[in-house]
Amino acid sequence: MTAVQLHELIDLDRYPIDRPDSDAYGAVVEHAREGLRAEGCAVIKDLVRPDARSRLGQEIWDRKATTHYSTQVINPYFHFNRSDEWPDRHPMNTFRERSSGFIPGDSWEDSTAMRVLFEHRNLTSFLADCLEIDELHPYADPLAGLTANILDPGQQFTWHFDTNEFAVTVLVEQADEGGEFEYVPAIRSHNDEGFDHIQHVLEGGRDGVRTLDLRPGDMQIFRGRYSLHSVSRVGENSRPRHAAIFAYTEKPGVIGRLERTEQLFGRVLQVHIDAEHARVRTDALID
Length: 287
What we know:
27% of the residues lie in helices and 21% in strands. It is of the alpha+beta class.
């Protein structure tokens, strides 16, 4: 089967990611940089062509049987258990429901439009420019590199932080009710966990909370390591919410953390076990 071409997936006249020297390319990159600097988030509206959205959507439905679903009660750091080291009214001891599913990376063949888009060198270079970093590599993790997040009716992805510095998502199917992406930009930093503000949000406070009006085909670049974020509960009678998640790293060959992999995919591979033994932390933040 012939792999889909980039121009079939992205409107290269509007978003000329294949022409990095063009004025139009520079304008798109600068717009994204402004959002990332100010809010830790940039949205590239309608990046994916309408017919390509349908193709991505069908690829998700064709692989939905491989989804690992789980319902857990977690704190924002994906911990389950109460800690006596912290007070009761504290983010470490505040737990909310996470109910969702992930289609793992080994469900996507090389010929799928999803994988072609995820790994395309023009998209990778474009994202690196938006993030103002020298280079970017598709996450080498065989399960967590390319995934689809599934929120079926009644499910939600509660407030949490990512383990990666940033994430890239494409909304593929929008819920009729609920399923809204919300976040608080830069609520913590390398040297400040921001516990007070986090607890305020966990208890229903809205100070600093942003809600994104994402539409199918929109690509979101998001600094989820420092910004608390969630996807609200999908209505019981709604269509599901399907989103492609493209994970990248600044260094090649990175493999995900053992515990988080088990939580999200229900299994680990030998590469995860090996990587955990050799892991070196890049910050002291709580995971």
